[in-house]
Amino acid sequence: MKLVISEGSPHGIKVLAAAALWAGNVEIQRLQQEEKVVPFLSQPKLPALQLDNGNFLFTTNAICRYLFLSSGKDITDLSNQWLEWEATELQPACIAALHSHVVQGKKKEEAILNIQKCLIHLDQSLGKENHPYIVTDSLSVADVAVWASIYPLFTSLDSLPDNLSSFKSWFKNVSQLEECQKAAESLLKGQGASAFKAFLQKLPTPVLPAEKPACNEEEDAAVKTLSEEDIAAAAEAWSKDLTDAPQARLRQHPILPVDGERNIMITSALPYVNNVPHLGNIIGSVLSADVFARYCRLRNWNTLYVCGTDEYGTATETKAMEEGLTPQQICDKYNAVHTAIYQWFNISFDYFGRTTTQQQTTIAQDIFHRLLQRDFLLTDTVEQLRCEKCQRFLADRFVEGICPFCKYEEARGDQCDKCGKLINAVELKNPQCKVCKETPVIKSSKHLFLDLPKLEERLQKWLDQTFAAGDWTANARYITRSWIRDGLKARCITRDLKWGTPVPLDGFKDKVFYVWFDAPIGYISITANYTDQWEKWWKNPEQVQLYNFMAKDNVPFHSVIFPACLLGAEDNYTLVSHLIATEYLNYEDGKFSKSRGVGVFGDMAKDTGIPADIWRFYLLYVRPEGQDSAFSWGDLMLKNNSELLNNLGNFVNRAGMFVQKFFNGCVPEMELISEDKRLVAQVAAELHQYNQLLEKVRIRDALRCILNISRHGNQYIQVNEPWKCIKGTKEEQKRAGTVTGVAINMSALLAVMLQPYMPTIAGIIQEQLLVPKEVNVLTNDFRCTLPSGHRIGNVSPLFQKLENDQIESLRKRFGGGQPDGDNSGLQEKAVPKVPAPTVAPETSTAGDPQKLKELLQQVEKQGNHVRELKKGKAEKTVIDSEVQKLLSLKKELALAEGKSPEPPTQKGKKKK
User: Fold this and answer.
1) Residue-wise pLDDT tens digits, 299-358
2) Considering only Cβ atoms within 10 Å of each terminal Cβ, which end of the chain, N or C, has fewer?
3) Using omega within 30 degrees of 0 as the cis cutoff, is the peptide bond preceding 257 cis?
4) Does a cis peptide bond (omega within 30 degrees of 0) precede residue 152?
5) What is the pTM of this model?
6) How far apart are alpha carbons 275 and 823 in whole angstroms?
7) Domain of 767, in residue numbers
8) Which among 84-88, 191-195, 205-209, 504-508 has the top mean pLDDT?
9) pLDDT greater than 60 at residue 293
């Protein structure tokens, strides 16, 4: 193994300490600056650990975990939870504090306030135990990871906070270990935190808004100590009669608000019709909104989820010219593309519409007239960029140049993606037409403006009330406040285009409405196309809660401009109460690019052979809630194989197989003892936290509760060993029945909790267990929904392993050099039948002698392995899994030989 680190990077402390503690034979290479070491990443990424087989690990916690395991030690679930907390909460806070202190020059005491909540969380958690380390009496990988993130801020142990005694004692224990001391000093070199200044200066200024909770002890059910009262209450709820359980709401269209009920309307940012959405677009809007919509329905809340394609503007005109079609034909074509993608991802819109409708024209023009009558519009002559070659004024999105504020070289004509500031296109330095790359000229044109300064007071009053009552994400609050703080300016709402909603005013009838005035009105017009009673949703703020889902770059238009228009219209419009914005999802530490063939786009995901539910799970697992995150093929494989296959799938399958094998397919009698009741209480606590988190739309965090329950279940089965008890005395057999019955009911609960995240898998579990449909309602109670005597169906594995060869093939396929994104004809493509995820995609290996030889050897080896398992009478689930691998290899071999991948019909022995 070789560990490569960058001098001057604080991330090196963690891996150097882990290497010294648990892998003394690792070769260490130090580079003066970050260099590209991992070949398949688009950008340098250090530290990196090159394994003996040539593979790389390039996230610090993955490296530390690997080194820890390679020393023969085991990682507990609690260690994994701490590592997750360190990566998502502590590390970003510590880097922000370091940046504040070292780069911005703030006092250390002031900078440390950024991590104060994290330190309190750590101190309280340590205070609950009597051992000196985070997890047990011995040092764990979690101790090293957490310590290394904090250490640069406390290089002098004398500066530790006196009021956090448990934290202070723990921190000194770890700091005094020789391996940790040497690792830190080899990078600090006596300079303290200033040794990292060059590294920190290259980072964008980290933003940690005050509203973001670094950690919340009250909500952390995973570390909650269960009281006897908790356990007794959970046991009582478990035994409640199901006849009084709430029944699932019968959903009939059109869905309309109901008096006295919780009425929730959900929208996700309207995707622009020309852009085939990539994974980042999907998780940032429609998938996140879908999870919340499905959750709301499980809570029996009256819920409507609408979306549609945004179809007006220059981009449509340009695409129409490129393809020799009319703008309307282009919209029809690509609306079908979007529809097919979202159907494959199983997005449960109640209605998916579009903006090129008469309702859009009628409602947009009505809002415009109301603003005009109330004197909230201005007229002014503006200078615009016009491309003489294309013979048109350029819409903002079709101009690119250097930002006048931060010098970012790819700023758009309306906003800079790097610094977030608004830009007038004429202010760009070195502007270029994105269509033809020519330099545009400045020309004058008369336009209409929304008088935002005149609306600012009523907008501010509404924002104050909404922030106090609603759950906006921290980035949405921060971005909105920064707009208000800088002072609102009049905003142009018209454009010199032909394809758009016409401006109904003399002198402007050759113009159309600008997209950021017109497009958000699409939410209203799409609802109006769904039902002629749309005003019951959109002019009913007293009864309706409106949730908007989007990426952070869309926030100002939904939090300032659109609400200002509706407030100025003075027509009792429903305004957003919960604005849910994600950060950005990157692709393997780079950006998605259709033109360069980098990244997975919605129309490609289905062709990878990986089912939609696996994509949904992974995107939600890495959902960029508090900071940007990245899609990683290696991490996708890891999460599929560990969290889904070995954790969740393993538990559900084992529980079902025990019922089939030991109890003839019927749920056995259950007699709960204290251990079982404690487990029921733990599951109930996780369910309660799951509900709390999803009510606050903390989607990624709530997913961890599902995985925690299956981890509890696996541990419960492993400790109680029902496969042994069933062979013992009557008392032991009764114990096997109780353990199996509790486990199968945990599986039934998981099937309900999984529905927002993995609806297909959830349905398969319910089908296998023959779960009654009426249990598809979530409360805070964990009830015994599959009582003794309930017969289940046939049980089979839920997930299949993703192999390294398959993932490497996909990594290369989507790493660049794909077609340039001309999606003509996409809507004519039939959605292929998705093969099992272990079937490698067809590649150019047909006829390759070396590849054929390797595959033949792999098939022979795997065949021998399966025969040995059968001979040794291994568990059926293990055999089935290995048989699937063998079939996958045979299919890959058939493809390489140029044959049909379908296996020949098997001829079994005739029964006598």
Assistant:
1) 999 999 999 999 998 888 878 888 889 999 999 999 999 999 999 999 999 999 999 999
2) C
3) no
4) no
5) 0.68
6) 10
7) 632-775
8) 504-508
9) yes
End-to-end Cα spacing for the chain: 58
3-class DSSP state of 800 = coil
Strands (DSSP E) along 677-743, which ranges?
none
From the CB of residue 85, how many other CB atoms can be counted at a distance below 10 Å? 23
- Regarding whether 70 and 180 lie in a shared domain, the answer is yes
- Residues facing residue 308 across a β-bridge: 353
Residue 413 belongs to what H/E stretch? none
Distance of alpha carbon 58 from alpha carbon 732, whole angstroms = 48
Length of the chain: 912
CA distances from 604 to 282, 600, 601, 823 (A): 13, 6, 5, 11
Q: Exposed, middle or buried: residue 404 (CB in 10 Å: 0-12, 13-18, 19+)?
A: middle
CATH number at residue 693: 1.10.730.10
Q: At what angle do helices 674-695 and 228-238 cross, to 10 degrees?
A: 90
Q: Which residues pair with 442 in a beta bridge?
A: 385
3 state SS of 595: coil
Distance of CA 120 to the CA centre of its chain: 27
Domain end marker among 751, 775, 799 = 775
Sole residue written with tokens 């999105």: 397
Q: Any idea what the CATH number is for the domain that residue 884 is in?
A: 1.10.287.10
Domain boundary among 198, 215, 232: 215
DSSP designation for 399: E
What count of other Cβ atoms lies within 10 Å of the Cβ of residue 486?
10
Q: Point out which residues pair with 204 in neighbouring strands.
A: none
Examine residue 108 and state whether it is found in any structural domain, yes or no: yes
Q: How many CB atoms lie within 10 A of CB 873?
A: 8
**Is 56 strand, coil or helix?**
strand
CA nearest neighbour of 432 among 441, 444, 423? 441
d(CA 451, CA 442): 24
Peptide linkage before 47 cis (omega within 30 of 0): yes
Which 3 state secondary structure label does DSSP give 626? Answer: coil
Burial (0-12, 13-18, 19+ Cβ within 10 Å), 441: exposed
CB-based contact 342:352 (threshold 8 Å):
yes
User: What H or E segment, with its residue span, contains residue 496?
Assistant: none
Q: Express each pLDDT in 422-476 by its tens digit.
A: 788 888 999 998 878 899 998 888 999 999 999 999 999 999 999 887 689 999 9
